[in-house]
Amino acid sequence: MNKYILLYLIIINIITFIIFGLDKLLAVLNKNRISERVLLYLSIIGGCFLEFLSMFIFKHKIRKKKFYIVNIIFIIIYLVIIKLEILWNTIHINKIKY
Fold first, then answer.
1. Which of 96 and 46 is assigned the larger pLDDT?
2. 40, 45, 73, 83: most buried by Cβ count inside 10 Å?
3. In this model, does residue 97 exceed pLDDT 70?
C-alpha cells in the first residue's frame, strides 16, 4: 500500500477521533457543538474507522442511525479501495518480475 495513503488515513482518523471526543466534551459541558455535518464529512474523507470506534468509546451519537450507516458504508468503501490497491500492487510487481 502506498505509504502516503496510509499516512493520510492514520492522520485523518486521529483528527476525527479527537474532534469526536471534543464534541462529546462540549455536549457534556453544554457548550457550542461541532456540527453533525462536519462529523459526517470527516467520516467520508477517511476518518470512518476511528469515528465508528469513538462512537462507542465516548458513547456519542450512538442513537443516530445516520452515523452508523455512513460509517459502515465508508468503512466498506475504504477497505475495498485498500484491498484493490494491494491487489493492483501485487499484480504490478508480479508483471515486473517476469
1. 46
2. 40
3. no
Contact 39, 6 (CB under 8 A): no
Q: What is the pLDDT of residues 35-68, one digit of tens each?
A: 999 999 999 999 999 999 999 999 999 999 999 9
Separation between Cα atoms, residue 78 and residue 91, nearest integer Å: 20
Cell numbers given for 13: 482518523
- Which has the closest alpha carbon to 57: 49, 46, 65? 49
What angle is formed at CA 8 by the lines to CA 52 and CA 55, rounded to 5 degrees? 10
The x, y and z cell numbers of residue 70, run together, are 455512513
Task: Report the C-alpha gap between 51 and 62 in whole angstroms.
Answer: 11
